[in-house]
Amino acid sequence: MSQLSFLEKLLDGAEVEWLTLSEFAKKIYSGGTPNTKKIEYWENGSVPWMSSGEVNLKIIYKTEKKISSIGLKNSSAKLVPKNSIVMALAGQGKTRGKVARTRIDLTTNQSLAAITFDEKKINTDYIFHFLETQYGSLRKISSGNSGRGGINLQMISNYIAPIPCPDDPKKSLAIQAEIVRILDSYTELTTELTTELSGRKKQYSYYRDQLFRFEKGEVEYLPMGKEGIGKFIRGSGLQKKDFTETGVGCIHYGQIYTHYGTYADQTRTFVSEDFAKKARKARSGDLVIATTSETDEDVCKAVVWLGEADIAVSSDACFYTHSLNPKYVAYFFQTESFQKQKRQYITGAKVRRVNADSLAKILIPVPSPEKQATIVSILDKFDILTSSISEGLPREIELRQKQYEHYRDLLLNFPKKEHQTV
């Protein structure tokens, strides 16, 4: 079915007017944060208080923190009624410009703006879906395109949105509701899949930890740096400026967090032949480990290299060359047993570190090669289901999200008159 024809049929000749948010929103305002040093403002709080990061949830049913009625009264925080929209004015990473719809009464911090509507004229969810299409544009108009840019209330007030036949609220709401119904059908499926993925990941973590638990005396627990078991080797001074278009493969420690999963046989980046000659290189089967991070949870995230050629490894990383099943070692690094041992060796304040000498002291259970292979075979199935971007649930979620974005852009791509600009 042609989506354009469907939209024309839905509008049934109705004009679409582009109005500024201030023309049809009831109120646009920012929030505030009660004094965190005042215990009575937070202790036993009953009023949901939303931080800017929570906008990524898209639909707000609850908040991580709550404030007290005294905290609300004695701060710039303001109540936001349910079925409103909240927009991130600022925030780390890609948060700025994102929107969420509220399903509870709440308050927000100062980095969020609330937009409320007259429900007899405007469907909040319709505006939410439209503003999701405007993420790039909203970031562009903010005060600077860097991570420190911001959106202010005036920018939001002047931002325009398409309202079908605003002079006929009944017909307008019917059109808005039908568009919301179609788009929500896609978001609900994505939510269901995401919930299922979360459950599968918990199940995966449980079984992974169980598989690495052995009866007393069943296996030896040996230091990872024991002779004949393995050796940790620090990476060399590889920086992003050393990357080349082609050449010898390399792994930069930052990529372990952002690009790689449990294992890889291709690198994302390369270095020159001359640079590679001087670099320390991991061989096929070696585990490449990021030894620095901003959080305790992420430090020592690792990927096993399964490619044929040797690869260069950056500083702030090390690689583990060993006599064990490569994937067995990689999965061990994901277990609570490893994490618990790792924590005692973490150093640093803002940047958290674990050095190669400390990793060598961590004990790893060493069953027979056949048992290692069996454990790997079981965990590979879970890993594909929960982590693979080419198959499994993550792939399915990605496809559904793209499908939603496709229809969202089609259904909300109303033409503007020449003098109307966002």
Q: Could you please describe the fold and organization of this structure?
A:
The protein has a 5-stranded mixed beta sheet. Strands 12-21-17-19-14 form a 5-stranded mixed beta sheet. It is elongated and about 80 Å long. With 422 residues, the chain is an alpha+beta fold. Helices cover 36% and strands 20% of the residues. The chain has helices at 3-11, 21-24, 69-73, 124-133, 135-141, 153-158, 169-211, 253-258, 273-278, 326-332, 336-343, 356-359, 369-387, 393-411; strands at 16-20, 25-30, 47-50, 59-60, 65-67, 85-88, 99-102, 107-108, 112-117, 160-164, 220-223, 230-234, 248-251, 263-264, 269-271, 281-282, 287-290, 292-293, 302-305, 311-313, 317-322, 352-353, 363-366.
The end-to-end span amounts to 30 Å
Radius of gyration: 26 Å
What is the overall shape? elongated
Average pLDDT number = 88
Query: How much helix is in the residues?
Result: 25-40%
The unreliable regions are none
Descriptive labels:
alpha+beta, five-stranded mixed β-sheet, elongated
What would a concise description of this structure say?
The protein is an alpha+beta fold and 422 residues long. It is built from 14 helices and 23 strands. Helix 7 (169-211) runs antiparallel to helix 13 (369-387) and helix 7 (169-211) packs antiparallel against helix 14 (393-411).
